[in-house]
Structure formats: structure tokens, C-alpha cells
Amino acid sequence: MSLFDDKKSKDQNPIVSAHEAWVGILYSCISADNQITDSETAALSRVLHSKEQFIGIDIAPLYAKSYTLRIEMGQLKYLSACCEWIQKEDKETVFALALEVLLADGKLEKEEKNIIEVLSNRLQIKAAMTSKIIEVIFLKNKGNNKVI
Fold this sequence. Notes:
Elements: H1 3-11, H2 18-30, H3 38-49, H4 60-73, H5 75-83, H6 91-102, H7 110-122, H8 127-141
């Protein structure tokens, strides 16, 4: 893919910023089972607000856009569009945070497996790193009985 192709792809992408992409990916993770609890939304907000790049960013409109685009585009296509905006140095971090949200209950459903696969591929996370991140997040969340 050339630089021109990448720009053209981003120009046609309804995601217009890295902030939208981060929220879109993480929002898609909490909505993977088509049920979003207040605790999941609160946890997502805490995760985002803990990141320096989200200081002073109003996340509510980003949630609203994520909700709309996820429905319009479909979950997997939306995730792919979001991944185009993630900077190389942030890819593993976003992937780990996405897994944190997906695996907070210590279970991995079919839809969640699909999301992990799409994210790993679209973010171009190497297989060895993907395995390490999954292992650590599973260990961290072992024994959880509810979504954070």
C-alpha cells in the first residue's frame, strides 16, 4: 500500500481522529455482547481518562458517534476503520486495553474472539506479542465474576 492509498483510505473513513479511534475500539469491545452496563461505561471512561492524550477531551460525543457508526457500519468493519487511525507506538497499548475490557469477566465469548482476531490483524500485532498480552490479561482477570 502506498502513502497515497493510505491517505485515500483515511479520507473515506468516517473516523476523523485518533481519539475517535481509541473510543471506537474500546466501545466496540464493551458492546461486543450487545449489552453495555453502567459499570462497563464507567470502566471505559476511567481507562481513557487515565491516558494523557485524553486529558480535557469530552468523551460523551465520541461515545455517541461510536454507537452510531458501529450500527451503521457493522462491528468488524467499524473496528477496521478505527484501527487505521491508531499510531504505531499506540497499537499494543490499545490492543491490551481492548483485551482488558473484553476479558474483564474472565470469559471469552465467540464475538469477543472475533474482535481479538480483527484487532490483532488490523493493528498488525505480532502473534507472539498477541499471545503474551492475552496471557497477561487472562491472568490479571482470573477469578473475576463481574464486568469491571
